Amino acid sequence: MSGVKVWIDQDLCTGDGICEEVAPAIFFGAEDGLYYVREANTEVPAEPTHSFHEPVDVPDNLLEATIEAAEECPGECIFLDVD
Ligand code: SF4
Fold this sequence. Notes:
alpha+beta; three-stranded antiparallel β-sheet; two-stranded antiparallel ribbon
């Protein structure tokens, strides 16, 4: 793991899906039209398991894409926490 965690503030999410386009192994869209993080490289859950301040670990190989998603997020609602 990279020592970095990521979470999304769904209150600010515009639902455009850019995060999933950039890093589909960690971001996904749910039925409510908002986007969520999930444990990296696991199957997309039927319902979100992590929302708001509940982060997931970012593996080393997804760190660059996760940072890019946060930079491109129009809602500025993807947050990275460093241990
Ligand atoms: S890029 Fe940001 S605003 Fe767009 S869907 Fe993802 S979290 Fe929401």
